[in-house]
Amino acid sequence: MPRWFDYLSASSPPTTQVEEDEVQSVPHTRRCPPPRQAVSPCSGQGGPDLPRLSHPRPRHVPPQLPRRRRRRRRVECVAQFDKDLLFRDYRIASANADRIAFAVDVPLLHRALRSALTIHAQSLAGPSAAAAAVDIQIKLVKKLPAGSRSSAPFLTFETKGARSAVVQDVPISKPLSRADVAELQASLDAAQDLPQTLVQVPDLSQLQSLVDRLKNVGDLLTVSITQYGDLHLQVSTTLITVGSEFRKLRVLGAHAEPPVGDQNLSARTRTEMAIQRGEALSVQVSMKHLAKSLQCHLAKPDCAFYGIAPHGACLTVIFQFFIPGTRLTDKSISFYCRLPVLDPGSS
Predict the structure, then answer these.
(1) pLDDT at site 240
(2) pTM, rounded to two decimals
(3) N or C: lower Cβ tally within 10 Å for the chain?
(4) Do 162 and 250 sit in the same domain of this protein?
(5) Do 152 and 233 share a structural domain?
């Protein structure tokens, strides 16, 4: 199987797309989540006592262990970073090959990061020497929560700026066992395999606007991807079928030239014929799941690729980031989503 960066490292000119809507009144019968992202913290030397800001009502987040036999029912988003991209000094020690995994409440983690960024921004507004003094340390520690008789694990953020210094304790689950870490790593490694065909959607905001309109029609969305560079979206109810198509998109992986005789056919007919020829795949996903995955555009990726896993196992969205000032893939960042399939798909 090809790997992500084998395809995503090359640059290409901007793609073109044509959108065409189709509305048909046809009889149709409607047919009817992964672990939170694990975090590997760095540990560093502690400084002097700092004012402490602890989140109210510390609570444990039970680890969501990966399960091989359980079919994914929620959107799975995974972001991976090279440690040198985030840390100047990185030290970690573990009996499990220096790997630590745990579950964390995302809103609490987000709150701690926002506070650290606020202190950093305040320091940048001051003298340049003060800005250079900003220091953020992340530690994995065990502490005794208020009102508790036993210690609990926390991810501690120590932020020291020119004007303020804050310590924030983010409660986490107990570290996953060696077997669970190995299973989680195997799942991440398996996700590096690409779908056979990927098409690039250059304008995520346009796609999000389209999905916002389609979700008013129905809850289930049929997604079809052809080797010709076509992305077809369709919502069907018992009374109406509404679809939209992006054509002539950039294709990575298996690519085929569209038959000349298909140009004058409707989008739905062309897609069905491509599926019969084995040059397209089609799956059905939840409209809510797709809308959630589109929120990843807030990370400001440079482009996004959509693909369907072999045998219609899932809908994969890969977000690509460029090295600033170039169109070369930044291999220090990996960000993708996998959407569960509500229909077995066709091939």
Answers:
(1) 87
(2) 0.72
(3) N
(4) no
(5) no
